[in-house]
Amino acid sequence: MNKENLLLYFIMGSNNTSQPPSQVLKKAINGGITCFQFREKGSGALKGKEKETLARELQSICCKHKIPFIVNDDTELAISLHADGIHVGQDDESIQELKKKCPSSMIIGVSAKTIEEAEEAERQGADYIGTGPMFMTTTKEDAELPIGPEGIWALRKQGIQLPIVGIGGINETNAVEVIEAGADGVSFISAISQADDPEKAASTLKDRLT
Ligand SMILES: Cc1ncc(COP(=O)(O)OP(=O)(O)O)c(N)n1
Ligand SMILES: Cc1ncsc1CCOP(=O)(O)O
Ligand SMILES: [Mg+2]
């Protein structure tokens, strides 16, 4: 993956917004996001056919605008849709398993916050790591305590070369700190999905970072 694609990485599922997800995604793309992750998870999340239908709808929007479409957690869905990538956490399927099942062109993102996790992700051939939570977040039900941008500094200081995306509680006022700490990109859910004007929210974030 081109690491420039990680700069403004938007993540959303149907329960992260009160607006139609397809509308939010289109507005976010108009505002300048560079990557999208479909994360259909948590209370009220769609399942089965409904989940797949929404995934296909959002994928086709991404495809039309040449925005990488990454699926969170659900390897089978990612493979069946020929998604551009899959993102997994430490408690999800291992990179080793993913490498066996997925086409070699598929982007593999892994959550990693300790040096051990990041080094293991590098060894196993991940394409990028997602590190966080950077700041307090209420979006992820089982989020751990924030580690702050210092967590990214620490990984860089210890020699981690993989592209890093910060995640968790990132908004227009703190995004720059995350990049300054050594991240290649910032990912966010609520800063865009909960905004009254998702296009403006995305373009403001972009202005802060470019
Ligand atoms: C870009 C990015 N980074 C981290 C995560 C978190 O993944 P995970 O730890 O598996 O938690 P869930 O998102 O599955 O609840 C992410 N999704 N994306
Ligand atoms: C999925 C995830 N992983 C760590 S924090 C988080 C939630 C990010 O959501 P928000 O950008 O609204 O804080
Ligand atoms: Mg996960």
TrEMBL record:
SUPFAM superfamilies: Thiamin phosphate synthase. 2-[(2R,5Z)-2-carboxy-4-methylthiazol-5(2H)-ylidene]ethyl phosphate binds at T137, T138, T139, G169, I189, S190. One of its GO terms (biological process) is thiamine biosynthetic process. Its EC number is 2.5.1.3. It catalyses: 2-[(2R,5Z)-2-carboxy-4-methylthiazol-5(2H)-ylidene]ethyl phosphate + 4-amino-2-methyl-5-(diphosphooxymethyl)pyrimidine + 2 H(+) = thiamine phosphate + CO2 + diphosphate; 2-(2-carboxy-4-methylthiazol-5-yl)ethyl phosphate + 4-amino-2-methyl-5-(diphosphooxymethyl)pyrimidine + 2 H(+) = thiamine phosphate + CO2 + diphosphate; 4-methyl-5-(2-phosphooxyethyl)-thiazole + 4-amino-2-methyl-5-(diphosphooxymethyl)pyrimidine + H(+) = thiamine phosphate + diphosphate. 4-amino-2-methyl-5-(diphosphooxymethyl)pyrimidine binds at Q37, F38, R39, E40, K41, N72, S111, K140. Binds 1 Mg(2+) ion per subunit. Keywords: Magnesium, Metal-binding, Thiamine biosynthesis, Transferase. GO terms for cellular component: cytoplasm. Residues 8-192 form the Thiamine phosphate synthase/TenI domain. Belongs to the thiamine-phosphate synthase family. Condenses 4-methyl-5-(beta-hydroxyethyl)thiazole monophosphate (THZ-P) and 2-methyl-4-amino-5-hydroxymethyl pyrimidine pyrophosphate (HMP-PP) to form thiamine monophosphate (TMP). This is Thiamine-phosphate synthase. It comes from Alteribacillus bidgolensis. The gene is thiE.
